[in-house]
Design a protein that fits this description.
By secondary structure, the chain is α+β, with helices and mostly antiparallel strands. It has 2 domains: about 130 residues, no CATH class; about 80 residues, Alpha-Beta Plaits (2-Layer Sandwich), CATH 3.30.70. Helix content is about 35%, strand content about 30%. It is built from 6 helices and 9 strands. The strands form 2 sheets. A 5-stranded antiparallel β-sheet has the order 4-3-2-1-5. A 4-stranded antiparallel β-sheet has the order 7-8-6-9, covered by helices on one side. β7 and β8 form a beta hairpin.
Amino acid sequence: PTEATAVIVALRALRNGARPDTREVVDRALAKLEAAAAAGSAAPRIDPGADGGDPDTALLATRLQDAADRGRQVDLTYYVPSRDEESVRTVDPRGVVSTGGVAYLDAWCHLAGAPRLFRLDRIREAVVSESPVVTDPEPPRDLAEGMFARSGGTTPVTLRLDPPARWVVEYYPVEEVRPQSDGGVEVDLLVADPRWLTRLLLRLTPHARVVDPDGAHPEFTQTYTAAARSTLGLYT
């Protein structure tokens, strides 16, 4: 187990800068070594060095990438810091990606009903099942320009979130978070579909609102207000 772990860490380092054809060979070797290491009842930790990364995270990344390559669902136990709780969810993995030195699993989350990025260091447990993914296969997103690259089809929106709604920061991709004196936050996020924003605001009522000091996007507030009145009308 000690030798297997050492080789796994070395291969992970090699994989980061490898060409696609070499990476395919490395991935096959990693999958076999991971299985061998897992068979040991007490595989010891080793110090991979300052640039070697965490061996446990490297092993997890290998397993998750293998699940994505084979089209198998994964059951995740995931820690959400903003709520200080763990959630259990089933995902269709698309691949392991990284940015800023942090590795993420890009996957379709069946609990959220949408694609999500899961930090590997917050995954408490990952069980690869034999159930095939049920969503259309897609490649993992490209994080070369950062996690939340802008596109022509998205609109930047700022939300003011009261403390009960702070969970949005961990649950949805946001560009920037600015803490407020009352414990709430202002968050900047990119919206591709105004209907999604309206549904989110309805869920967060009364603890969220659109911040639009320049009056650049009055349609978001207007659409939400109309939807809220319509919903309220169902109860009167």
